[in-house]
Amino acid sequence: MSSAGDEFGTWDASGLNRFDEAVGAPPTAAPYDPLRLCVFATIALITCVFGPIALAVFAGIAIAGYAKARRAGLLRSKCKLGDTRNVLAYLIVLEVLALVAVPFWVMLWAGVWS
């Protein structure tokens, strides 16, 4: 029997690590898409224009979504508040504050335009 060094010494590895046209090139990483930044900017614009009305609408949509998710079994959220009960409480507070602020916001704009 020959030694291990002889076996590997005569082995031809030149066919390894070659590009195979049938397989194709590995996929390249897609460039970073800052879609979240565009979404945040759009939400900020809507909030600037519509004030507490926009906050009430967004909070209402979020409350409906989290309530549905909680009924479906979601107990922990990726939100920093963690527990969905905390998230729902936070959103309800935002909704109430927004609804209280709407009349004052309307009076402010009525005073500006009159």
From TrEMBL:
Keywords, in A-Z order: Membrane, Transmembrane, Transmembrane helix
TM spans (from-to): 39-66, 87-112
Designated name of the protein: DUF4190 domain-containing protein
Organism: Agromyces lapidis
